[in-house]
Amino acid sequence: MATLSSKPGLKHSVTDWDATNKLLSDIAEYRRKASHDICQEGRALRNETANKASWLESDSNRRLSDRIHDISHWKELLEFCVQEVDREMDALTLSKEAAERALASLTLPLEVTVDCLTMREGRRGSELVSDLVEAELKKEVRVIDEAQHALQQQIDQSFEELCLLQEARHQLTLDLQNKMEALDADMSCLSLTVTSSEISLKPQPTRIPHGSSTPQQWVQFSHHNVTRAQQEMQASQQLRENISTTRVQVQNELEAQRTVLQFALRKRTHNLEQAKDELQWQLKTTKDQIMDMEEDIRGLEDDLQAKMSPLKLSHTRLENRTKRPGMDLCWDEVQSGLVSEAKQLEGIIQSLCSKQSNLLHIDSGQTRPGHETGKDCVWPETSAGFYSCLAFGAA
């Protein structure tokens, strides 16, 4: 007959076994509940973090889009401003070249005016006068000098303004280039997603780069560049208007001075022609008068020669009657008549000689010493003076 072996040890009761099983069941249920809560919390956290990450990415994309819009706006504004500066530089260059041509065109009128003054210095004698034409020529030289100075000054200002516009354009170009690079960088960032192959972890991604600016400084910098360019363009436009006004003013002043000078030249030419005609008339009249005087002189000479024969007859008779002898040499009526006749003839001849002498002196343009042209000469009543008168008349 077989026997049952028994192991030594403590045996639990059914109650203990049930309690142990219930404890294990409770512990398992508690662990399952705790695990379920943790899983629910994990799911909730996953959903929350996923939503938050999605919102953060969406918000970053929105900010990137807004930033791209701002950069694009300033980029378009800078491009438009650069184009405006280029057009203004071209317009100012054309105005500068027009001013240079106007300045060069003043060289010939100045040379002509100076040549006119030089030629007028060659006038001789009493014709070398300081007249209205000379004054107007000198005034024209002053007007041309002032015009050249004004044009040259505006040409220099145009060159300086072109340099300022070029500097402003350079700043705009640099700012525009920076905007284009920043726009490319932000658009590249906007195109990245969580599935992009270019993404990776970077060291110290939240660091602030050296030289970073604030949004206010960024806007102020571009606004300053645009404002400066606009101010330079306004200054250039004003300068172009001044150049155009100066060119028109110079042209009007030169035209007005040319008109005044031509009037002075015509007036002076008219005066010279009048003086020339007057002198020619005086010369012709004087020649005619000289011919008349010469005719009168010849007439006086003929009359003088005609009076010599009666005088010789009277002198001969008187001389022959002095040969009467004795008492027959008396002062009778015949003798007194012959003496009266001789004296009257001598007076006639003397007056003829005096008039002839005056005519000769007037004709030669000279006066005899001690006598004035046009006045009767006073001849001595001596025989020597009388015969010298006859000799002068005969000559």
From TrEMBL:
Residues 269-303 form a coiled coil. InterPro entries: Tektin-like (IPR048256), Tektins (IPR000435). One of its GO terms (cellular component) is axoneme. It is found in: Cytoplasm, Cytoskeleton, Cilium axoneme. Keywords: Cell projection, Cilium, Coiled coil, Cytoplasm, Flagellum. The keyword Coiled coil applies. The keyword Membrane does not apply. Its main location: cytoplasm. GO terms for biological process: cilium assembly; cilium movement involved in cell motility. Belongs to the tektin family. This is Tektin. It comes from Denticeps clupeoides (denticle herring). The lineage of its organism: Eukaryota, Metazoa, Chordata, Craniata, Vertebrata.
